[in-house]
């Protein structure tokens, strides 16, 4: 089958069949090539392999057949030319940024970043002489001002953690390109099912496959997706080969199985989340519900147009009784687990101010909209009515 035919497949077909290549045994499910190295029929063949004249596997730090299937499947889903799998989402973020930045470069990033991404941009990059500037991602004037001088990279996360702010990827990409910058989008919360940043003008998309792509809380993984040939050839490929953040073939196989059900799961997560968010909006003791799928969300319209008319799999909400009420509610839940993970079949809830964002000062939390009464709920695949019942009884216990 030609590549062209595969590209015309619709999403559900690509997720199940994209990239599949069978071994001599004609297995139905993709094989796991759990091997670090490869052998050559002759010394001459080894010489040719190292010259790179012929496509051939050399070492699994460079490439591996199971990873290749995962990478092709995810690239097809994004309509992109390249996908590179990494050991974790953070390995993907660091490889994408560090492989192409050098001293004297300038990075403009949205302030509401996942904690470890913030650490890389705020604490690591400046150590290597990279200037970093933070903006309120939802404010185009802020971007415009920051991008009025030459910039190397723009980095953003949308929707953001935990307040689910939505950034206009197309508008920011236009400003970024005018400033000479490439645009990197952390698309973990939206997933490639709801949002395709490359179609909106972004250059590089980052995933923590740990979240929705696995979807069942089993493994860490990450990926970088792009159409940028120069970035791949001159920066990312040598970085991956020589610094070693490669994904394990076993992980690639688990994530391959995750991709097969990704679309169905994400749609059901969103449907459940919409029902739970709509209910929470009517609950006494809940002062604010932040859910991009509700018209009350400050960026509802943008979310609908940018994320395929879907809300999100996550909800943030505020308890009027502050931290005390939030802790009481979390402790009273019977089904929903207390966990900082997200995108799992199991519904997971966390109190960002004392967990994921504990390191931030009061001022930094306030700037991001994180209050003491705020909780973040990753809505799972249980029956939405059971989740609503569980939240209701816990909210009553917390009052
Ligand atoms: C989890 C997460 C990451 C990091 O991914 P890991 O797989 O945990 O390394 C990066 N960005 C966002 C938005 C995340 O939720």
Task: Give your account of this protein's structure.
- With 399 residues, the protein is α/β, with parallel strands linked by helices.
- The protein folds into two domains: 258 residues, 3-Layer(aba) Sandwich (Aspartate Aminotransferase, domain 2); 137 residues, Aspartate Aminotransferase, domain 1 (Alpha-Beta Complex), CATH 3.90.1150.
- It contains 15 helices and twelve strands.
- The chain has a seven-stranded mixed β-sheet, sandwiched between helices.
- The longest helix is centred in the middle third of the chain and has 32 residues.
- The model has no long low-confidence stretch (mean pLDDT 96).
- It binds pyridoxal-5'-phosphate (PLP).
- The site of pyridoxal-5'-phosphate has 16 residues, from α5 and α6.
Task: Give the structure's gist in a few sentences.
With 399 residues, the chain is an alpha/beta fold. It has helices spanning 3-7, 11-17, 43-51, 65-78, 89-98, 115-124, 140-146, 169-178, 191-194, 229-243, 249-280, 300-306, 322-332, 362-368, 384-397; strands at residues 82-86, 106-110, 131-135, 153-157, 182-186, 204-208, 222-226, 286-290, 314-319, 337-338, 348-350, 374-378.
């Amino acid at each position: 089958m030609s590549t062209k035919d595969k590209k015309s497949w619709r999403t559900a077909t690509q997720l199940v069949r994209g990239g599949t290549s069978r071994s001599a045994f004609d297995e139905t499910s993709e094989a796991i090539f759990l091997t670090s190295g490869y052998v050559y029929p002759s010394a001459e063949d080894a010489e040719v392999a190292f010259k790179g004249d012929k496509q051939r596997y050399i070492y699994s730090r460079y490439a591996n057949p199971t990873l290749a299937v995962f990478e092709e499947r995810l690239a097809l889903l994004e309509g992109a030319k390249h996908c590179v799998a990494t050991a974790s989402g953070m390995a993907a973020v660091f490889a994408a940024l560090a492989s192409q930045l050098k001293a004297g470069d300038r990075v403009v990033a949205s302030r509401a970043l996942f904690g470890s991404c913030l650490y890389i941009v705020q604490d690591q990059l400046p150590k290597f002489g990279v200037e970093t500037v933070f903006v309120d991602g939802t404010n185009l004037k802020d971007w415009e001002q920051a991008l009025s001088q030459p910039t190397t990279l723009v980095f953003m996360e949308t929707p953001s953690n935990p307040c689910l702010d939505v950034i206009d990827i197309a508008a920011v990409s236009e400003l970024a390109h005018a400033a000479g910058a490439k645009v990197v989008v952390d698309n973990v919360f939206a997933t490639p099912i709801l949002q395709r940043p490359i179609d909106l003008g972004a250059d590089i998309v980052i995933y923590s496959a740990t979240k929705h792509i696995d979807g069942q809380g089993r493994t860490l993984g990450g990926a970088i997706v792009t159409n940028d040939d120069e970035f791949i050839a001159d920066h990312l490929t040598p970085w991956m080969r020589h610094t070693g953040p490669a994904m394990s073939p076993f992980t690639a196989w688990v994530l391959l199985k995750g991709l097969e059900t990704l679309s169905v799961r994400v749609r059901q997560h969103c449907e459940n989340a919409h029902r739970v968010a709509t209910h929470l909006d009517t609950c006494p003791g809940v002062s604010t519900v932040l859910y991009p799928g509700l018209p009350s969300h400050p960026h509802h319209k943008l979310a609908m147009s940018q994320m395929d008319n879907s809300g999100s799999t996550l909800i943030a909400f505020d308890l009027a009784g502050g931290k005390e009420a939030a802790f009481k509610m979390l402790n009273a839940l019977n089904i929903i687990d207390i966990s900082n993970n997200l995108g799992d079949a199991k519904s997971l809830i966390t109190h960002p101010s004392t967990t994921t964002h504990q390191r931030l000062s009061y001022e930094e939390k306030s700037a991001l909209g994180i209050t003491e009464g705020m909780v973040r709920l990753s809505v799972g695949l249980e029956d939405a009515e059971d989740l609503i019942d569980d939240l209701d009884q816990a909210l009553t216990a917390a009052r």
